[in-house]
UniProtKB/TrEMBL annotation:
InterPro entries: LexA/Signal_pep-like_sf (IPR036286), Peptidase_S24_S26A/B/C (IPR015927)
Organism, as annotated: Chishuiella changwenlii
UniProt-recorded name of the protein: Peptidase S24/S26A/S26B/S26C domain-containing protein
Domain Peptidase S24/S26A/S26B/S26C: 140-210
Length: 247
């Protein structure tokens, strides 16, 4: 029974990743329907519908190959396993060899010595504020800036006092990869860091905490915030313990 449950969970995860990919492709390349996309990647439209509905026998390597042949920006490994990033231009530096890391352009990241919950709005709204310092770590290659984390609501994923690399998500109202960790800013000046997805009606963002087991009763299973109240969304693209910073 346990083995069967694991298979079901894997199927759900890969289906969600495929749905995210299809939504991204349709939005980015202005493809209006699944029928049009099926024609582009040269598979029958009923097969694509079955794939999006989680029918495993159609979620084949042949389908993945057709998808990445037409859209090479898509990371095939991410679709199949969830490892790395959805897009190939989001380099997963943790899996690069040392010599490959050395070829990356050195990009120093501005660090603001504030935590997201108390000091972020000021630096976000005032571009004249000077960073506390700049640092370089390969895994922060895709971050726009870094700040401190605080609190225990995401302790299974992020440590209290960790340094977080953030990147603003443009036009997130139209599309963002669901199930990832985001920093959310609302119109009533509240800020939170959670795993985020949309609700079924596409009216709210569902915020999901990941506390340690001993703290789980301090947090709800999830909260919902109206999309109309969200003013900015930042993806957490990297994190590290503060002691690791190479200044």
């Amino acid at each position: 029974m346990k083995e069967k449950d694991n298979t079901i969970n894997n199927s759900i995860n890969i289906t969600e990743r495929i749905i995210n990919i299809v939504e991204y492709i349709k939005f980015t390349y202005k493809i209006k329907t699944n029928t049009a996309l099926a024609k582009i990647i040269e598979i029958p439209q009923p097969n694509l519908s079955a794939i999006l509905n989680g029918v495993e026998k159609y979620q084949t390597e042949g389908f993945f190959n057709k998808l990445v042949d037409k859209y090479p920006i898509i990371n095939k490994k991410w679709i199949e396993t969830g490892q790395g990033n959805m897009l190939n231009d989001q380099t997963d530096v943790e899996e690069l060899e040392v010599e490959e890391i050395e070829k990356l352009p050195i990009k120093k990241i501005p660090f603001y010595d504030v935590d997201f919950y108390s000091g972020f709005t000021k630096i976000f709204n005032d571009q004249t504020i000077t960073p506390s310092y700049y640092f370089y770590l390969p895994e922060f290659h895709n971050a726009q800036f870094a700040i401190k984390n605080s609190g225990k609501s995401m302790s299974k994923e992020l440590g209290n006092d960790d340094i977080l690399g953030l990147r603003e998500v443009p036009e997130w109202q139209n599309y963002f990869p669901q199930g990832e960790i985001y920093a959310v800013v609302t119109s009533n000046d509240l800020r939170t860091i959670k795993k985020v997805r949309r609700d079924k009606e596409n009216k709210n963002l569902v915020l999901i905490p990941k506390p340690l087991d001993e703290d789980k009763f301090d947090y709800p299973d999830y909260e919902e915030v109206p999309i109309s109240m969200v003013t900015a969304l930042f993806q957490v693209v990297a994190s590290t313990h503060s002691k690791k910073l190479a200044l």
